[in-house]
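Give me the fold.
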Amino acid sequence: MYRILIAVDGSPHTDRTIEAVADLARTQAKFEVDLVHVLAPMLLGDMAPTLVQQVNDNLRTEQTVLLETMAALARSHGLTVRHTHATVGNPAVEIANIARDSGAHQIAMGTHGRGALGSLFMGSVAQAVVHHAGVPVLLVK
């Protein structure tokens, strides 16, 4: 069974990535996907512990809703969604690790297409995933 891990962030780039993977799926007899969303750790400074917990709970709820929404979109395009993964950490490292641990044959993700100058100042998760991944990475603009 061919498996692709799709990194999702809720942007239009994610929608296009799911569409591109669905197009690929039409050429494979046995095909399934996993979805991953990674929350980057937040530094909340001197916030009261109860407020920190409330913020974290809200972010986790939003993450769950995002993954459910993206899974529904993937299914509407005819994809079989095997698992969703919600995690916190360095997005590129987490995506590469989940791809490895889940047995993914490929990673697919959208790129915001900021170009070299934008990536220099803002970093590029896609670029870092390519660096860390042990499998091919499909970037969709």
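Residues 49-76 form the longest helix (28 residues).
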